[in-house]
Design brief:
It is built from three helices and 21 strands. The strands form five sheets. A six-stranded antiparallel barrel has the order 2-11-14-13-12-15. Strands 3-10-8-5 form a four-stranded antiparallel sheet, with no helix packed on it. The chain has a four-stranded antiparallel sheet with strand order 7-6-4-9, with no helix packed on it. Among the domains are: 88 residues, Efflux pump adaptor protein, beta barrel domain (Elongation Factor Tu (Ef-tu), domain 3, Beta Barrel); 57 residues, Beta Barrel (OB fold (Dihydrolipoamide Acetyltransferase, E2P)), CATH 2.40.50; 74 residues, Helix Hairpins. The longest helix is centred in the N-terminal third of the chain and has 37 residues. A hairpin with a 3-residue loop joins strand 17 and strand 18. By secondary structure, the chain is an alpha+beta fold. Helix 2 runs antiparallel to helix 3.
Length: 334
């Protein structure tokens, strides 16, 4: 027998051995049913963890409004200024009283020194000297009190500056330049930079939801698209029901450029159910159709579902006990 025919025969036998039931197969996966999370699709809205109003501290007229809706702000940034003309008049009046008090302090000091000299000569009584020293102390105290009163009015003027309490974005500006405001009125509402997805679930699902549970977050927008799914975590479950629904916050990366109130699709686990899950590398796409390769049978069309731990859920096309063979190379098609 020629060597070439011998090698060809051995190759055929080796290929047939791989198809025999007892022959070894590499990279096989046996389809089985196992419990998976029963995911419910809901819509969640982007919300700020902290929404803080920037309020006025004094009454007056709004001047120099520096922000508008959507403006980014930093902590301590000047948003607007409230001016009260009466405060400037009070400062001017106190300045005049302080100058008068300085003159009185100077005069009382001269009188006290003169009485000390005369007392040393024995020409005035000790009572007269004590009276002069008391007058000097009173004048000094009056000057100090006026200076403190002036500092208080200046501080009230400084309180006219409306500052951002936290960094974030301005959601609402309910005032305009020239508007008269009272103490405590809101100049701007600021959403802090920490954003979450706030979702509402029916009351019957409340027992399934707890802090730390993973959730799947869809792509931005309201379109039904399983691509671009991200994983988030339940940050907080609120103890009070809102119109028969449980409210929860979900943390997920990349919400900084979303609009506050923008909705997106979220998948939340509401219990367990049986399902077939196949590793993703055992599936391939050809001409827009998803296939799995069955051992001894060939390619079969399958209907994939959502991602699940360990692979992709298969909705139809496979049965428990089917043996899948991993494709030699991933196949994709348009």
């Amino acid at each position: 027998m020629q060597p070439s025919r011998l090698f060809a025969g051995l190759a055929i036998v080796a290929g047939l051995t791989g198809l025999l039931p007892g022959g070894p197969r590499a990279q096989e996966f046996t389809v089985e049913v196992r419990p998976v999370d029963d995911l419910k699709a809901v819509f969640a809205a982007v919300a700020s963890l902290d929404t803080t109003p920037a309020r006025t501290r004094i009454g007056g007229t709004i001047s120099g409004l520096a922000v508008d809706e959507g403006s980014p702000v930093e902590e301590g940034e000047l948003l607007a200024r409230v001016e009260d003309p009466k405060l400037a008049l009070e400062v001017a009046a106190l300045d005049a009283r302080i100058e008068s008090a300085k003159a009185e302090v100077k005069l009382a000091g001269i009188e006290r020194d003169r009485f000390k000299t005369l007392r040393g000569r024995g020409t005035v009584s000790q009572a007269a000297l004590d009276s002069a020293e008391t007058a000097s102390s009173v004048a000094t105290g009056t000057l100090a009190a006026l200076r403190v009163e002036r500092a208080l009015v200046v501080e009230r003027q400084a309180e006219g500056d409306v500052l951002a309490p936290k960094p974030g974005r301005v959601l609402e500006v309910p005032v305009t330049d020239g508007q008269v405001v009272l103490p405590g009125e809101t100049v701007a509402v600021i959403a802090a930079q920490a954003y979450v997805l706030r979702l509402h679930l029916p009351e019957r699902h409340a027992r399934f939801l707890k802090e730390g549970d993973p959730v799947l977050v869809g792509a931005r927008g309201l379109a039904v698209d399983d691509k671009g799914m991200r994983e988030g975590r339940v940050r907080q479950v609120y103890p009070e029901l809102d119109r028969g629904r449980v409210v929860a916050d979900v943390t997920v990366e990349g919400l900084g450029d979303y609009f506050v109130g923008e909705r997106t699709r979220v998948y939340v686990a509401t219990g367990k159910r049986p399902a077939i899950v196949v590793p993703a590398d055992y599936l391939f796409t050809r001409s827009g159709v998803t296939y799995a390769r069955l051992a001894d049978v060939g390619d079969t069309v399958v209907q994939p579902g959502l991602p699940a731990p360990g692979g992709i859920e298969i909705l139809s096309g496979l049965r428990p006990g089917d043996v899948l063979v991993k494709p030699a190379e991933p196949e994709t098609g348009s």
